[in-house]
Description:
- By secondary structure, the chain is α+β, with helices and mostly antiparallel strands.
- The chain is built from 5 helices and 2 strands, in the order H-H-H-E-E-H-H.
- Strands 1-2 form a two-stranded antiparallel ribbon.
Amino acid sequence: MLRLQQAGVCAAVVQDIEDNFNDPQTAHRGTFSFLEHPVVGKHPYTNLGFILPKAPRSIDSPGPLLGEHTHKVLKEFVGMTDAEIEELEGAGVLR
């Protein structure tokens, strides 16, 4: 790469994901967060590629499991009661 660049050719190293995880620049910029996921264990998550002074940049929780937040969404956002949610569960609608 350096020889090509010195000769005036635009060139860069082609990196695989392992190279990216170990790259000093990605570490410096906090590109990845490694979080514990309940199914797959420790797993890398890519943070935002840009930095805003007043906004969080890193991911603080792993990806959700299928249906993990169903009760919260139905109760807090849809406005359903516990009884209504239980009725849906009993009917086999929520799995």
